Amino acid sequence: MESKQKIYWLIDLIWTKSLLNLKSEASRNILSYIWWILEPFLYMLVFYIVFEMLLNRGGENYTTFLIIGLIPWMWLMKSVSGSSSSIINSQALITQIKIHPVIFPLTIVVQTLIKQIPVFILLIGFVWLQGFEPTTSWFWLIPITILELIIIVIFSLVIAALIPFVRDFNYLVPTGLTFLMFMSGIFYDYKNIGEQWQDVFLMNPMAYLIKSYRDIFFNTEAINTYNLFVWFLISITLLIMTLHLYRKLGNIFPKLTIQ
Amino acid sequence: MQPLIELKDVGLQYKIKGNIFTKNKYYDALKNINLKIYPGETIGIIGKNGSGKSSLLKILSGVIQPTSGEIINHGVSASLLTIGAGFDNNLNGRDNAILSGMLQGLKSQEIKTKLSEIHDYSGLGDFFFEPLRTYSTGMRARLGFSISNTIEPDILLIDEIISVGDSDFQKKSKKAIFEKIANKGSVVIVSHSPHLLENICSKIITIKNGASIKKNDTEI
Predict the structure, then answer these.
(1) Rounded to two decimals, what is the model's pTM?
(2) Which of A12, A17, A255 shows the shortest C-beta gap to B65?
(3) Is B24 on the interface with A (CB under 8 A)?
(4) Of B16, B88, B107, the CB nearest to A20
(5) pLDDT digits over B94-122, tens only?
(6) How far apart (Å, rounded) are the C-alpha atoms in residues B149 and B63?
(7) Cβ contacts of B63 on chain A, cutoff 8 Å
(8) What ipTM does the predicted assembly reach?
(9) Strand (E) positions, B56-210?
(10) Eight-state DSSP code of residue A69
């Protein structure tokens, strides 16, 4: 009973802190909440200019193809890079108050999720406007998005926990994310790589997710329910292991951050 | 009587430096500390700067785990009286009260029912609804103290009796702390001035270089 109440309080705290952080962030800018849309738009514009205009890589529907890859990617990238130093940055707080460090990366994940909602709605509207009518297969977006959320939580929590142990990892986060970006088939179709590599390539969760988003939006290939089930099984197992690790290690983070 | 918290041969060691180019260097902040806190006790801890007083409070509050020995907590909450924990400069006083109160262990419903009390106590008036960055140092401290004052742990840990704000508020906050000490259960106060502690504490412990050297049991 006691621990149930504690979990409820943690969720309450994470939710409240996320909303207040978003409010704080928006309050300092002239354009306030408009940045939630403007910033992803500008980011996508950069890739559009390089690939479609300069390199003329295009082909039919290339912009739509690119955007379907970029938006889910940005969601992961922002969550992970935001959470990575969240525990060490909360040093002043966790050495004063007994508070579980898991709240810091999770707050970033929730904050990024909230900002992602309008962007996702715009994505759906954009794809529709490009002439891809919604079909019943679009309902598959729901499990795929949930799967991405679970994967984001795992990545964010693991990296946030590693950095207090070895600060050096902080330098690897941007490079690691860039590597992952190029390995996830955002700018190209995984079918263009050698056939012998395709299965290995799709073992990268981001590559699998982006492929699935495109299959759903373009209605090219039905989602393989067995594959999806295996992905859920693996990621939920890893999530439980990560949370268990936090329960075990939670107490040692305050000391790690000050030495 | 069963103690609320027991420390058995507690030691705390920090790594000061060390990487692939320099040898690891450690520092003992606390050595072999034995302490029992009973209900209703007011314990004073005296020591110079760097003697390990604050480290001891961190061990008692459970923020930091000892590197040797053990701490046995018989199901009580112990927390440090902190001022302005988790404050965000861009949020107004009200939002900061919610945030800071929740970080110190309150549920969102609990802190919301205490908001008007905090508002009144702080004496901030309309500034309560303005961003924290517009506050003076004294105003920040008033808000911080008003929030912490509503937190009621089983064992209150105090790192120096702080006097915050202008002289009126200083009197008010000091009085509030002394009331807590008088009314409520157990308090541990750290200070470098023995005079203050001798009047209010039932037990005084002196810490020197991380080890307790003397115990004056005036009671028990």
Answers:
(1) 0.91
(2) A255
(3) no
(4) B88
(5) 999 999 999 999 999 999 999 999 999 99
(6) 20
(7) 94-98, 254
(8) 0.87
(9) 68-73, 78-80, 155-159, 186-191, 203-208
(10) H
